[in-house]
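Posting this for the archive.
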Amino acid sequence: MKYLKALAATFAFVLVLLAVYAAHVRYGKVDVVLYSAVLDAALAAAIVGGGLFALKAFAEFSRFEKVQMLCLWMLGGYAFAISVPTVIDRSLSFYLLEKIHQRGGGIHVDRLHHVVTQEYMVEHRLIDVRLTEQLQSGTIEVIEDCVRLTERGRGLVGFSRFFRGNLLPRQRLLLGEYSDDLTDPFRNSVADVSYRCG
């Protein structure tokens, strides 16, 4: 009986999460999709958790068990936030599938570069979205039309460069060939660039 009540409460959390998320994206303002969806999960957990602690139907659960359920719901909400809205919002893979569908079910391989650089960047306002996310995250700041890393940004870059260089696959399949190109994508980058700011 106790397990059925826990399952019912979890089902209620999922329903409330989906309702809160749908209402937020339909009627609310969203700065960053990931942060917004995590906030929705926290709100849903608070709503259902309030019922969990207030209703006599759940009195047989100890405080520890209730806190465990709240933690599991937050983990599930976080997984939802990353795996569904954030992936669909950010994913080049989903974009390519949608674009192939839009273009009648097929695109020539040699034209995909054009699709990504000329259509994806514009249609998804990619620069605007990424700058907004990084500004909201506190990893960059814009000073006199110059985008600069903050201390937090430098720390994140240090972590990502270490992870990329040491913990990404060295034999990754890229169009029929195994390569380590993505462990150091700047390996063949041009050093002399004109877009630096002082």
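The chain has a mean pLDDT of 93. Residues 163 and 183 are 9 Å apart (CA to CA).
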